[in-house]
Amino acid sequence: MQRLSELQEELDYWQHLRQRIADTLELAAMEDDELASDLAAETAQLEQELDQAEFRLLLSGPHDRSDAILAIHAGAGGTDAQDWAAMLLRMFLRWAERHGYKTEILDSLEGEEAGIKSATVSIGGRYAYGYLKSERGVHRLVRLSPFDAAHRRHTSFALVEVWPDLGDAVQVEINPADLEIETFRASSAGGQHMQKNETAVRIRHRPSGLVVSCQNERSQTQNRETALRVLKSRLAQIEEQKRREAISSLKGKHVDAGWGNQIRSYVQHPYQMVKDHRTGYESGNVTAVLDGALDPFMEAYLQHTLGE
User: Measured in Å, how far apart are the chain's first and last C-alpha atoms?
Assistant: First the structure.
């Protein structure tokens, strides 16, 4: 029924667009000078709408309409890398805010001095996964380090993982005997305990080695359910990768968050530039990109994948 509703919505969209085009052609055929300005305005709107419609065709993957779960892991670079991971988290949260998406930090591990070692975020909204799948990979930052007393230039890395949040639709069977479940106290920044009870949950799936945790919810039961949801989504993605690799259509091998593996570089010194190494797309406004202006990079990636 959900799929039927989505198809009906898609059909209604294209039928409405086709009707608008027909009405505009009928208006043009009247050759009325008084309607010229209205005709020009409607034509411009239709051109813009058709461009958007054409782009939507790039988001036609099996899970592109789904919500997304995004994880960030600090890589090589010590404290700078942990600070960089926190900067990336802020960037994605700001991007989601621009799109009106709902976000929830499911789990985070603070760095010793600054930033975060890792974080997992749920991002809910139409096409969230379709857009965010372009961000999967290693992100590299070059800047004058605020943590270096000599203020030298440092290079930091962070790994971004993205998978669709399939919710209750995930068709993955998990044997309870394959799970190691432990509870612990949820903690906030600075190591202060948020609660006295052990409400946070960490689950390890023995066959795959996957470990997921959640400490955002107030009860242990809620955290357990959320962690299981994340685990099922990750296992579903692994199965999807296996199927695609079998027909050589997916190159999804794991990469280390270090030199030579970056998909995108953010340079703040000695010049200002963000460059995507897969598509060649770049921007000189690093501040805007780190403030969530990611759409041009995402769109360039989606266009680029058409040629693969």
Answer: 33
Q: For residue 244, what pLDDT band results from cuts at 50, 70 and 90?
A: low
Cα→Cα distances 227→73, 165, 231, 235, 239, Å: 18, 12, 6, 12, 18
Domain assignment present for 59: no
- Put simply, whether the predicted model's pTM sits higher than 0.85 gets the answer no
Structural domain harbouring 201 = 176-246
Whether residue 58 is contained in a domain is answered as no
Q: Specify the DSSP element, H or E, that contains 89.
A: helix 78-98
Quick: pLDDT tens for 118-151. Answer: 999 999 998 999 999 999 999 999 999 999 888 8
Q: How many domains does the chain have?
A: 3
Domain boundary residue, one of 246, 270, 294: 246
| Separation between Cα atoms, residue 246 and residue 260, nearest integer Å | 26
CA dihedral 230, 234, 240, 244 (to 10 degrees): 150
